[in-house]
Design goal:
The complex is a heterotrimer of chains A (228), B (461) and C (53). Chain B has helices at residues 8-16, 20-46, 61-85, 95-116, 125-128, 135-168, 174-183, 191-224, 236-262, 271-302, 305-315, 320-341, 346-373, 390-413, 427-436. By secondary structure, chain B is mainly α. Chain B has one domain (8-432, 444-449): Formate dehydrogenase/DMSO reductase fold. In chain B, helix 2 (20-46) runs antiparallel to helix 14 (390-413), helix 3 packs across helix 13 and helix 8 (191-224) crosses helix 9 (236-262). With 53 residues, chain C is mostly helical. Chains in contact: A-B, A-C, B-C.
Chain lengths: 228, 461, 53
């Protein structure tokens, strides 16, 4: 059973945000619009966060793409009263949109603030409605439920089905999320952390590797390779 | 048999007469409640986007209301149960009025939580798919049990008085008299029944005391069980509990003063009751500031980055006005009033109690929102602000209107002062007297129709 | 299944929480019903002159 993880090389990332755009197109996240985004209601499963330290001209900028960290010890699944969010056997923290009651306890429990809520029924500006992903697993979520990055779980399903059809075993390199596929700088890697020969596994053990908020003990499976 | 209470007629007077003023009041309160319901329906149709909630402030006014109303509910149980267990018999006239505060604030606490849900149509998922690992499930169990127990406790305490009304108030509308007949079940006021009732109330009082501690601690653990700075503190349980008892007791002071004025109950609610409550409130206010000092001194001394972001926002940042306003409203001003002006002065006591309750609502808000506004990762980005919309404000006001409406109707259907608990002579004493006087049966038998009902000037409506 | 496994299964499976809520509330209802009956039946076995004339 693979344990899915991601590595993001901050030296290669130049914050073009194609990953954010690709994620939206792949997963049909709603467009909040400028007013709602101003209020803090933009839904960005993958978000590039700017961390700036110091004063000009001695500024250090870290631009950090932040998907769901898919923790191995997630604080969010502990608090869900109805098991609408849970850790599956392959390490992906999933959300069951049919069961979520919208209490938003998971959203306040996540220390990374990666969870989003559908404040209204989703809408898109006209041109985008023609480009919605037709996959039923990425169907637009109704108002009142929580959603978040799923490591493009629909692609895993499609890859598994493809392998079945082609009569070959499913391997961990058969599927990658949209953000990894799109990354312009080839900064993102995805694969099975439990396979010592996989690229993600080797990179995760690199001396440059670090994780966000490690001291909390959440055991996130998204590793960052430090700059420099 | 009914215990002898010379103030019986005085206490029953509000039940006998419902006037135009009442109907006007009910209409106004009902109107506000309907407005709230209308806005809630709008929210259900459009989505929670009609509130000011956002990322990262996912919980705001509605959750504040939830904690606040559950806190108010602790007043009744404190006075009727905890003081009963402590043997404080001076509390007897207050018990029903306080229990009624509990009974009518709890449902609005529950409504507040349902108002906050994104998918209230899926509320039954809590039963079908409930996970006990979640603090929300502990909440549902505790609050549900508390509501059920409060209803039963109130009903059992009401039984002798319902029977009294069934027997003595024969000039009321048919439906009302029939209601008392049904509700009185088999109560005859015998010695054994009273004895068993007292025993049951003693037992329930102990149970309710344990429930009070459990319920508000569990409510606080919805926050305490997360990892967020400002929430993840061991003190949050006792802190919320004391706050609830403080705000609840102040609510009781306000309600009692109102009832005393409106229904002319000076005789049965004498000044010394308010003086006793005053002493309790001084203790609770001091206890509250102790908790605040313990909480913020510990946090500030530790000086961790994430804690200090939240604490600084309260001390001199975005939430400073609210925070220091809270300290003034809950502690400084009321304590001065309680100490210097509150003795023998109901007016000042009510004013201070109102300030405390406004302050306590702010306190719940101050616990919830600043922590959400400064999540760890986003602290540098300066994110997090929250401005409630008119929907949230009006729906909150409608909760208060609903509670007041239910309370007002209740005082017209049942005596708000327990007649049997404030009686001069208990049934036991009357039976002993009758036996001593050598009579075969005690006087004023309840089903003795030859005793005419006491005449009241002005018919019941 | 060991006790630990049972405990983990209880906490991680959806459903049992709802069962606990129902059990708690239904048990409370039953107890209150019995107690109320016990109170009301307090007059039935007393000597005649203690009840109403």
């Amino acid at each position: 059973m693979p344990r899915w993880g991601m590595v993001i090389d901050l030296d290669k990332c130049f914050a073009c945000q194609s990953c954010t755009a690709a994620c939206r197109m792949e997963n049909n996240t709603a467009v909040a619009g400028p007013d709602q985004a101003e209020m803090g209601r933009a839904v960005l499963w993958n978000e590039v966060l700017p961390f700036l330290e110091g004063e000009y001209p001695n500024v250090t900028a870290t631009l950090l793409p932040r998907p769901c960290q898919h923790c191995d010890n997630p604080p969010c699944i502990k608090v869900c009263p109805v098991k609408a969010t849970f850790l599956d056997e392959e390490g992906i923290v999933e959300v069951d949109y049919q069961r979520c009651i919208g209490c938003r306890m998971c959203t306040v429990a996540c220390p990374y603030e990666i969870r989003y809520f559908n404040w209204y029924a989703p809408t898109w500006p006209e041109p985008l409605t023609a480009h919605l992903n037709p996959d039923p697993e990425t169907a637009p979520r109704p108002a009142g439920v929580v959603e978040k990055c799923s490591f493009c779980i629909q692609r895993r399903r499609k890859a598994e089905q493809q392998a079945l059809v082609e009569g070959r075993p499913f391997t961990a390199t058969d599927y990658i999320p949209a953000c990894v596929q799109t990354c312009t700088g080839h900064a993102r890697y995805f694969g099975d952390l439990d396979d010592p020969n996989s690229l993600v596994s080797k990179l995760a053990h690199s001396p440059r590797a670090m994780r966000l908020l490690e001291e909390l003990g959440t055991e996130p499976k998204v590793y960052y390779l430090k700059q420099g | 048999m009914h215990p002898y209470n010379p103030n019986e007629d005085l206490i029953l007077k509000p039940v006998r007469k419902v006037g135009m003023a009442d109907k006007f009041l009910w209409a106004v309160l009902g109107g506000i409640l309907l407005l709230g319901i209308g806005l809630y329906i709008r929210q259900m149709v459009m989505g929670l986007g009609v509130t000011g909630l956002n990322r990262p402030v996912y919980w705001g006014v509605y959750i504040t209301d939830f904690v606040f109303f559950i806190g108010l509910a602790h007043s009744g149980t404190f006075i009727s149960a905890i003081l009963r267990v402590a043997g404080q018999s001076w509390r007897a006239p207050l018990t029903r009025a306080a229990e009624a505060v509990t009974l009518f604030s709890l449902p609005f606490g529950v409504l507040a939580i349902i108002t906050d849900m994104g998918r209230p149509d899926r509320v039954l998922n809590l039963l079908f798919y409930g996970r006990y690992q979640s603090a929300l499930l502990w909440d549902v169990t505790a609050v549900g049990l508390y509501l059920l127990s409060s209803i039963v406790f109130m009903y059992l305490s009401l039984l002798p008085d319902i029977a009294l009304m069934r027997d003595k108030l024969t000039d009321l509308p048919r439906w009302q008299h029939r209601m008392y007949e049904i509700l009185a079940i088999g109560w005859q006021g015998s010695l054994a029944q009273f004895h068993r009732l007292e025993k049951t109330l003693d037992g329930m009082a102990i149970f309710m005391t344990m429930l009070v501690v459990t319920v508000h601690t569990v409510v606080s653990w919805v926050f305490g069980m997360s990892l967020q700075p400002g929430w993840h503190t061991a003190l949050i349980g006792p802190f919320f509990l004391l706050g609830a008892i403080l705000s609840g007791t102040c609510a009781v002071v306000i309600v009692l003063a109102l009832l005393r004025k409106v229904y002319n109950l000076e005789k049965v609610l004498p000044l010394r009751l308010f003086n006793s409550l005053r002493k309790l409130l001084i203790t609770f206010t001091l206890g509250w500031i102790y908790m605040i000092i313990a909480e913020y001194l510990t946090g500030a001394y530790g000086n961790t980055t994430e804690e200090m972001h939240v604490i600084n926002s309260k001390f001199y940042g975005d939430f400073a006005t609210l925070f220091w306003g809270m300290i003034l409203l809950v502690f400084v001003v009321p304590l001065v009033i309680f100490l210097l002006k509150g003795k023998d002065n109901i007016g000042w006591m009510v004013f201070a109690s109102i300030l405390v309750n406004i302050g306590m609502w702010i306190e719940r808000f101050i616990v919830i929102v600043p922590t959400e506004a400064f999540p760890r990762l986003l602290q540098h980005l300066g994110e997090g602000s929250y401005l409630p919309t008119y929907s949230e404000v009006i729906i909150t006001i409608s909760y208060f209107a609903g509670m007041a409406l239910l309370y007002a109707i209740f005082t017209r259907l049942f005596p708000i002062i327990p007649i049997w608990e404030t009686a001069e002579k208990t049934v036991e004493q009357m039976a002993a007297e009758a036996e001593a006087a050598g009579l075969a049966a005690p006087q004023a038998a309840p089903t003795d129709k030859s005793v005419p009902p006491v005449a009241v000037p002005g018919a019941a409506d | 299944m060991s006790l630990t496994e049972l405990w983990v299964a209880f906490y991680n499976t959806a459903g049992p929480g709802g069962v606990v809520i129902v059990i708690v509330l239904v048990t409370a209802c039953l107890i209150y019903w019995r107690v109320t009956n016990w109170i009301i039946n307090g007059g039935k076995h007393d000597r005649p002159h203690d009840t109403h004339a």
